[in-house]
Amino acid sequence: MNKALTLGAGIGLGTGIMYLLDPDRGKRRRALVRDRLKNVARKTSHGVGVTTRDITNRARGLAAQIQSSVRRDKTEVDDKVLQQRVRSKLGRIISHPSAITTTVDGGKITLSGPVLRHEVDDLLQAVRGVKGVEDVENQLEVHNEPGDIPALQGGRIRPGNRMEFMQEHWSPAARLAAGASGAALAIYGGKRRDAVGAGVGAAGLLLLARGLTNLEVKRLTGLGGGREAVTIKKTLNVDAPLEKVFGLWSDYETFPLFMSNVKEVRSIGDNRTHWKVTGPAGVPVEWDAVTTRLEPNQVLAWKTEPGSVVDHAGLVKFEANKDGSTRIDVKLSYNPPAGALGHGVAALLGVDPKADIDEDLMRMKNMLETGQVPHDAAQTHAM
User: Fold this and answer.
1) What are 191-236's pLDDT values in tens digits?
2) Per-residue pLDDT tens over the stretch 104-139
3) Phi, psi of 155 (to 5 degrees)
4) Does the predicted model carry a pTM greater than 0.70?
5) Distance (Å, rounded) from C-alpha 86 to C-alpha 111?
6) CA distances in angstroms from 191 to 206, 222, 278, listed in the order given
7) CB half-sphere exposure, 327, CA atoms < 13 A
8) String of b and e for 310-331 (b: at least 16 CB within 10 Å)?
9) Is 185 within 8 Å of 206 (Cβ atoms)?
Protein backbone atom coordinates (compact mmCIF):
# COMPACT_ATOMS: atom_id res chain seq x y z
CA MET A 1 0.00 0.00 0.00
CA ASN A 2 2.76 2.44 1.03
CA LYS A 3 4.87 1.58 -2.02
CA ALA A 4 1.88 2.04 -4.31
CA LEU A 5 1.06 5.42 -2.76
CA THR A 6 4.68 6.53 -3.03
CA LEU A 7 4.87 5.38 -6.65
CA GLY A 8 1.61 7.16 -7.49
CA ALA A 9 2.76 10.35 -5.79
CA GLY A 10 6.08 10.19 -7.65
CA ILE A 11 4.40 9.71 -11.00
CA GLY A 12 2.01 12.58 -10.29
CA LEU A 13 4.83 14.87 -9.21
CA GLY A 14 6.90 13.99 -12.26
CA THR A 15 3.96 14.58 -14.60
CA GLY A 16 3.30 17.96 -12.97
CA ILE A 17 6.93 19.04 -13.32
CA MET A 18 7.01 18.00 -16.98
CA TYR A 19 3.77 19.86 -17.59
CA LEU A 20 5.09 23.09 -16.03
CA LEU A 21 8.56 22.86 -17.61
CA ASP A 22 7.34 22.13 -21.14
CA PRO A 23 9.62 24.11 -23.54
CA ASP A 24 6.73 25.45 -25.63
CA ARG A 25 3.93 26.14 -23.14
CA GLY A 26 5.67 25.87 -19.78
CA LYS A 27 6.16 29.62 -19.35
CA ARG A 28 2.47 30.37 -19.86
CA ARG A 29 1.42 27.51 -17.60
CA ARG A 30 3.72 28.66 -14.80
CA ALA A 31 2.33 32.17 -15.13
CA LEU A 32 -1.22 30.83 -14.86
CA VAL A 33 -0.35 28.81 -11.76
CA ARG A 34 1.33 31.87 -10.22
CA ASP A 35 -1.73 34.03 -10.92
CA ARG A 36 -4.05 31.45 -9.43
CA LEU A 37 -1.96 31.13 -6.30
CA LYS A 38 -2.09 34.91 -5.87
CA ASN A 39 -5.85 34.78 -6.31
CA VAL A 40 -6.08 32.03 -3.70
CA ALA A 41 -4.01 34.12 -1.29
CA ARG A 42 -6.29 37.13 -1.82
CA LYS A 43 -9.43 35.08 -1.28
CA THR A 44 -7.88 33.47 1.79
CA SER A 45 -7.18 36.87 3.33
CA HIS A 46 -10.77 37.96 2.65
CA GLY A 47 -12.09 34.69 4.06
CA VAL A 48 -10.11 35.10 7.27
CA GLY A 49 -11.72 38.50 7.82
CA VAL A 50 -15.24 37.21 7.14
CA THR A 51 -14.73 34.18 9.39
CA THR A 52 -13.37 36.31 12.21
CA ARG A 53 -16.41 38.58 12.09
CA ASP A 54 -18.76 35.59 11.98
CA ILE A 55 -17.18 33.95 15.01
CA THR A 56 -17.18 37.28 16.90
CA ASN A 57 -20.86 37.87 16.17
CA ARG A 58 -21.77 34.32 17.17
CA ALA A 59 -19.87 34.72 20.44
CA ARG A 60 -21.71 37.95 21.19
CA GLY A 61 -25.05 36.33 20.36
CA LEU A 62 -24.31 33.35 22.60
CA ALA A 63 -23.26 35.67 25.44
CA ALA A 64 -26.47 37.66 25.03
CA GLN A 65 -28.55 34.47 25.15
CA ILE A 66 -26.81 33.27 28.29
CA GLN A 67 -27.19 36.67 29.94
CA SER A 68 -30.87 36.83 29.01
CA SER A 69 -31.44 33.32 30.36
CA VAL A 70 -29.74 34.13 33.65
CA ARG A 71 -31.65 37.37 34.12
CA ARG A 72 -34.95 35.80 32.96
CA ASP A 73 -35.91 39.09 31.37
CA LYS A 74 -39.71 39.31 31.22
CA THR A 75 -39.86 42.68 29.50
CA GLU A 76 -42.80 42.72 27.09
CA VAL A 77 -41.94 42.84 23.41
CA ASP A 78 -43.77 45.30 21.18
CA ASP A 79 -46.42 43.52 19.09
CA LYS A 80 -45.02 44.82 15.80
CA VAL A 81 -41.51 43.64 16.67
CA LEU A 82 -42.83 40.23 17.73
CA GLN A 83 -44.81 39.88 14.51
CA GLN A 84 -41.69 40.64 12.46
CA ARG A 85 -39.78 37.98 14.38
CA VAL A 86 -42.49 35.41 13.69
CA ARG A 87 -42.75 36.33 10.00
CA SER A 88 -38.99 36.01 9.66
CA LYS A 89 -39.15 32.52 11.18
CA LEU A 90 -41.96 31.43 8.83
CA GLY A 91 -39.78 32.11 5.80
CA ARG A 92 -37.40 29.36 6.88
CA ILE A 93 -39.95 26.76 7.96
CA ILE A 94 -42.78 26.41 5.45
CA SER A 95 -42.97 26.39 1.67
CA HIS A 96 -45.73 29.05 1.44
CA PRO A 97 -45.11 31.61 4.22
CA SER A 98 -47.22 34.27 2.49
CA ALA A 99 -50.29 32.05 2.91
CA ILE A 100 -50.11 32.35 6.71
CA THR A 101 -51.72 35.29 8.54
CA THR A 102 -50.24 36.21 11.91
CA THR A 103 -51.91 38.40 14.51
CA VAL A 104 -50.29 39.43 17.78
CA ASP A 105 -51.92 40.48 21.02
CA GLY A 106 -49.73 40.95 24.08
CA GLY A 107 -47.39 38.07 23.28
CA LYS A 108 -50.14 35.75 22.04
CA ILE A 109 -49.73 34.69 18.39
CA THR A 110 -52.69 33.57 16.30
CA LEU A 111 -51.86 31.65 13.13
CA SER A 112 -54.43 31.26 10.36
CA GLY A 113 -54.48 30.38 6.67
CA PRO A 114 -53.83 27.28 4.56
CA VAL A 115 -50.81 25.09 5.27
CA LEU A 116 -49.60 21.62 4.26
CA ARG A 117 -50.05 18.96 6.92
CA HIS A 118 -46.42 17.84 7.05
CA GLU A 119 -45.34 21.42 7.88
CA VAL A 120 -47.73 22.08 10.80
CA ASP A 121 -45.69 20.60 13.67
CA ASP A 122 -42.46 22.32 12.62
CA LEU A 123 -44.34 25.60 12.17
CA LEU A 124 -45.93 25.56 15.64
CA GLN A 125 -42.70 24.49 17.32
CA ALA A 126 -40.72 27.23 15.59
CA VAL A 127 -43.23 29.98 16.49
CA ARG A 128 -43.35 28.88 20.14
CA GLY A 129 -39.59 29.17 20.23
CA VAL A 130 -39.54 32.82 19.12
CA LYS A 131 -38.37 35.10 21.92
CA GLY A 132 -41.30 37.06 23.38
CA VAL A 133 -44.02 34.59 22.34
CA GLU A 134 -46.17 33.65 25.34
CA ASP A 135 -48.82 31.54 23.62
CA VAL A 136 -49.79 30.27 20.16
CA GLU A 137 -53.36 29.79 18.95
CA ASN A 138 -53.70 27.41 16.03
CA GLN A 139 -56.42 28.39 13.52
CA LEU A 140 -54.63 26.91 10.51
CA GLU A 141 -56.43 25.28 7.57
CA VAL A 142 -54.56 22.00 7.15
CA HIS A 143 -54.34 20.35 3.69
CA ASN A 144 -52.73 17.06 2.75
CA GLU A 145 -51.95 18.27 -0.78
CA PRO A 146 -51.87 21.72 -2.48
CA GLY A 147 -54.85 20.65 -4.59
CA ASP A 148 -56.60 23.67 -6.07
CA ILE A 149 -55.73 26.01 -3.18
CA PRO A 150 -54.24 29.10 -4.90
CA ALA A 151 -52.12 30.09 -1.88
CA LEU A 152 -50.42 26.66 -1.84
CA GLN A 153 -49.34 26.60 -5.49
CA GLY A 154 -45.64 26.80 -6.33
CA GLY A 155 -43.40 27.53 -3.37
CA ARG A 156 -40.07 25.95 -2.57
CA ILE A 157 -38.52 23.71 0.04
CA ARG A 158 -37.22 25.65 3.04
CA PRO A 159 -34.14 24.72 5.08
CA GLY A 160 -36.14 24.71 8.32
CA ASN A 161 -34.32 24.14 11.58
CA ARG A 162 -31.86 21.60 10.24
CA MET A 163 -28.45 21.68 11.86
CA GLU A 164 -26.03 23.78 9.87
CA PHE A 165 -23.89 20.89 8.64
CA MET A 166 -26.98 19.35 7.02
CA GLN A 167 -27.62 22.47 4.94
CA GLU A 168 -26.31 23.19 1.46
CA HIS A 169 -24.39 26.34 2.38
CA TRP A 170 -22.31 26.59 5.54
CA SER A 171 -21.46 29.71 7.52
CA PRO A 172 -17.82 30.87 7.73
CA ALA A 173 -17.56 29.49 11.28
CA ALA A 174 -18.89 26.08 10.22
CA ARG A 175 -16.51 26.02 7.26
CA LEU A 176 -13.58 26.78 9.56
CA ALA A 177 -14.57 23.97 11.91
CA ALA A 178 -14.97 21.54 9.00
CA GLY A 179 -11.67 22.58 7.45
CA ALA A 180 -9.76 22.23 10.71
CA SER A 181 -11.33 18.84 11.41
CA GLY A 182 -10.65 17.67 7.88
CA ALA A 183 -7.01 18.74 8.06
CA ALA A 184 -6.59 16.93 11.38
CA LEU A 185 -8.12 13.74 9.97
CA ALA A 186 -5.92 13.96 6.87
CA ILE A 187 -2.78 14.29 9.00
CA TYR A 188 -3.85 11.44 11.25
CA GLY A 189 -4.62 9.23 8.27
CA GLY A 190 -1.28 10.01 6.71
CA LYS A 191 0.55 9.00 9.88
CA ARG A 192 -1.17 5.60 10.15
CA ARG A 193 0.20 4.40 6.80
CA ASP A 194 -2.35 1.62 6.40
CA ALA A 195 -5.70 0.98 4.74
CA VAL A 196 -7.65 2.53 7.60
CA GLY A 197 -5.39 5.55 7.52
CA ALA A 198 -5.90 5.92 3.79
CA GLY A 199 -9.68 5.93 4.29
CA VAL A 200 -9.54 8.39 7.17
CA GLY A 201 -7.14 10.61 5.24
CA ALA A 202 -9.35 10.62 2.16
CA ALA A 203 -12.39 11.52 4.28
CA GLY A 204 -10.38 14.28 5.93
CA LEU A 205 -9.31 15.74 2.60
CA LEU A 206 -12.90 15.66 1.37
CA LEU A 207 -14.10 17.43 4.53
CA LEU A 208 -11.30 19.98 4.14
CA ALA A 209 -12.34 20.62 0.52
CA ARG A 210 -15.98 20.94 1.61
CA GLY A 211 -15.02 23.61 4.11
CA LEU A 212 -12.77 25.49 1.69
CA THR A 213 -15.16 25.55 -1.27
CA ASN A 214 -18.58 25.54 0.47
CA LEU A 215 -19.78 23.11 -2.22
CA GLU A 216 -21.87 20.03 -1.47
CA VAL A 217 -19.99 16.73 -1.50
CA LYS A 218 -21.90 15.51 -4.56
CA ARG A 219 -20.76 18.58 -6.49
CA LEU A 220 -17.18 18.23 -5.26
CA THR A 221 -16.86 14.60 -6.28
CA GLY A 222 -19.20 14.63 -9.26
CA LEU A 223 -21.13 11.68 -7.76
CA GLY A 224 -24.82 12.54 -7.91
CA GLY A 225 -24.05 16.15 -8.83
CA GLY A 226 -25.91 15.94 -12.13
CA ARG A 227 -24.87 18.43 -14.78
CA GLU A 228 -24.21 21.31 -12.39
CA ALA A 229 -21.05 20.31 -10.55
CA VAL A 230 -19.46 23.31 -12.29
CA THR A 231 -21.49 26.19 -13.72
CA ILE A 232 -20.07 29.00 -15.85
CA LYS A 233 -22.05 32.15 -16.67
CA LYS A 234 -21.17 34.92 -19.10
CA THR A 235 -22.96 37.96 -20.52
CA LEU A 236 -21.73 39.96 -23.49
CA ASN A 237 -22.97 42.29 -26.23
CA VAL A 238 -22.38 41.50 -29.89
CA ASP A 239 -22.50 44.22 -32.53
CA ALA A 240 -24.69 42.17 -34.87
CA PRO A 241 -28.45 41.79 -35.45
CA LEU A 242 -30.40 39.44 -33.21
CA GLU A 243 -31.37 37.13 -36.08
CA LYS A 244 -27.75 36.68 -37.17
CA VAL A 245 -26.54 35.91 -33.65
CA PHE A 246 -29.32 33.41 -32.98
CA GLY A 247 -28.77 31.82 -36.37
CA LEU A 248 -25.15 31.06 -35.53
CA TRP A 249 -25.93 29.59 -32.13
CA SER A 250 -28.90 27.52 -33.29
CA ASP A 251 -26.68 25.80 -35.88
CA TYR A 252 -24.58 23.64 -33.57
CA GLU A 253 -22.40 22.51 -36.46
CA THR A 254 -20.82 26.00 -36.53
CA PHE A 255 -19.52 25.69 -32.94
CA PRO A 256 -16.08 24.38 -34.06
CA LEU A 257 -15.64 27.64 -36.01
CA PHE A 258 -15.28 29.64 -32.79
CA MET A 259 -14.71 27.03 -30.07
CA SER A 260 -11.20 25.68 -29.60
CA ASN A 261 -12.03 22.32 -28.00
CA VAL A 262 -15.25 21.43 -29.84
CA LYS A 263 -13.97 19.47 -32.85
CA GLU A 264 -17.28 18.44 -34.40
CA VAL A 265 -21.02 18.69 -33.84
CA ARG A 266 -23.32 16.90 -36.27
CA SER A 267 -27.05 16.35 -36.36
CA ILE A 268 -28.30 12.80 -35.82
CA GLY A 269 -32.03 13.59 -36.09
CA ASP A 270 -34.92 14.17 -33.69
CA ASN A 271 -33.36 17.36 -32.27
CA ARG A 272 -30.30 15.32 -31.28
CA THR A 273 -26.63 16.01 -32.02
CA HIS A 274 -23.36 14.13 -31.64
CA TRP A 275 -20.40 16.05 -30.15
CA LYS A 276 -16.65 15.41 -30.38
CA VAL A 277 -14.64 17.44 -27.88
CA THR A 278 -11.00 17.55 -26.85
CA GLY A 279 -10.81 16.69 -23.15
CA PRO A 280 -7.99 16.94 -20.58
CA ALA A 281 -4.52 16.05 -21.89
CA GLY A 282 -5.92 16.05 -25.42
CA VAL A 283 -8.02 12.94 -24.86
CA PRO A 284 -11.09 13.00 -27.19
CA VAL A 285 -14.50 12.83 -25.55
CA GLU A 286 -17.81 12.18 -27.34
CA TRP A 287 -21.45 12.41 -26.30
CA ASP A 288 -24.97 12.82 -27.65
CA ALA A 289 -27.10 15.83 -26.75
CA VAL A 290 -30.70 16.82 -27.26
CA THR A 291 -32.20 20.29 -27.76
CA THR A 292 -34.57 20.91 -24.83
CA ARG A 293 -35.73 24.41 -25.66
CA LEU A 294 -35.82 26.37 -28.89
CA GLU A 295 -37.59 29.73 -29.01
CA PRO A 296 -36.48 31.61 -32.15
CA ASN A 297 -34.45 34.75 -31.35
CA GLN A 298 -35.07 34.26 -27.61
CA VAL A 299 -33.84 31.06 -25.96
CA LEU A 300 -31.76 28.02 -26.91
CA ALA A 301 -31.03 25.12 -24.54
CA TRP A 302 -29.54 21.63 -24.81
CA LYS A 303 -28.32 18.83 -22.53
CA THR A 304 -26.49 15.55 -22.79
CA GLU A 305 -28.44 12.32 -22.96
CA PRO A 306 -28.34 9.83 -20.05
CA GLY A 307 -25.20 7.73 -19.90
CA SER A 308 -22.88 10.32 -21.43
CA VAL A 309 -19.23 10.35 -20.34
CA VAL A 310 -19.59 14.03 -19.34
CA ASP A 311 -22.89 15.44 -18.13
CA HIS A 312 -23.29 18.81 -19.83
CA ALA A 313 -26.02 21.40 -20.40
CA GLY A 314 -26.20 24.79 -22.08
CA LEU A 315 -28.69 27.65 -21.89
CA VAL A 316 -28.36 30.81 -24.02
CA LYS A 317 -30.77 33.75 -23.90
CA PHE A 318 -30.87 36.43 -26.61
CA GLU A 319 -32.12 40.01 -26.41
CA ALA A 320 -32.02 42.80 -29.00
CA ASN A 321 -30.52 46.11 -27.84
CA LYS A 322 -31.90 49.47 -28.94
CA ASP A 323 -28.75 50.22 -30.97
CA GLY A 324 -29.20 47.10 -33.11
CA SER A 325 -26.67 44.97 -31.25
CA THR A 326 -27.52 41.78 -29.36
CA ARG A 327 -27.12 40.84 -25.72
CA ILE A 328 -26.55 37.17 -24.96
CA ASP A 329 -26.55 35.47 -21.57
CA VAL A 330 -24.72 32.15 -21.59
CA LYS A 331 -24.94 29.50 -18.88
CA LEU A 332 -22.91 26.32 -19.33
CA SER A 333 -22.93 23.54 -16.75
CA TYR A 334 -20.98 20.32 -16.70
CA ASN A 335 -19.80 17.56 -14.42
CA PRO A 336 -16.11 16.84 -15.08
CA PRO A 337 -14.27 13.75 -13.83
CA ALA A 338 -13.93 14.10 -10.03
CA GLY A 339 -16.50 16.91 -10.04
CA ALA A 340 -15.51 20.36 -8.85
CA LEU A 341 -12.29 18.94 -7.36
CA GLY A 342 -11.22 17.79 -10.81
CA HIS A 343 -12.16 21.19 -12.20
CA GLY A 344 -10.05 22.92 -9.54
CA VAL A 345 -6.99 20.76 -10.16
CA ALA A 346 -7.29 21.29 -13.90
CA ALA A 347 -7.59 25.05 -13.42
CA LEU A 348 -4.52 25.12 -11.17
CA LEU A 349 -2.50 23.36 -13.87
CA GLY A 350 -3.59 25.87 -16.48
CA VAL A 351 -6.40 23.83 -18.04
CA ASP A 352 -9.16 26.27 -17.20
CA PRO A 353 -12.56 25.58 -18.83
CA LYS A 354 -13.85 29.00 -17.78
CA ALA A 355 -10.96 30.79 -19.47
CA ASP A 356 -11.42 28.60 -22.56
CA ILE A 357 -15.12 29.48 -22.75
CA ASP A 358 -14.34 33.19 -22.33
CA GLU A 359 -11.95 32.95 -25.27
CA ASP A 360 -14.52 30.98 -27.30
CA LEU A 361 -17.15 33.67 -26.74
CA MET A 362 -14.75 36.40 -27.80
CA ARG A 363 -14.03 34.45 -31.00
CA MET A 364 -17.76 34.17 -31.58
CA LYS A 365 -18.17 37.93 -31.05
CA ASN A 366 -15.35 38.78 -33.47
CA MET A 367 -16.61 36.29 -36.02
CA LEU A 368 -20.10 37.81 -36.05
CA GLU A 369 -18.84 41.38 -36.10
CA THR A 370 -16.11 40.96 -38.75
CA GLY A 371 -17.34 37.96 -40.74
CA GLN A 372 -13.92 36.31 -40.45
CA VAL A 373 -13.43 32.80 -39.08
CA PRO A 374 -10.92 32.84 -36.17
CA HIS A 375 -7.57 31.23 -36.94
CA ASP A 376 -7.22 29.59 -33.49
CA ALA A 377 -10.57 27.77 -33.33
CA ALA A 378 -10.97 24.00 -33.77
CA GLN A 379 -11.78 24.62 -37.45
CA THR A 380 -10.26 27.50 -39.37
CA HIS A 381 -12.52 27.48 -42.41
CA ALA A 382 -16.26 27.67 -42.97
CA MET A 383 -18.03 24.36 -43.30
Assistant:
1) 887 888 888 887 887 777 677 666 665 555 545 544 455 678 889 9
2) 888 889 999 998 888 888 888 888 888 888 889 999
3) 80, 175
4) no
5) 10
6) 17, 28, 39
7) 7
8) bbbbbbbebebeeeebbebebb
9) no
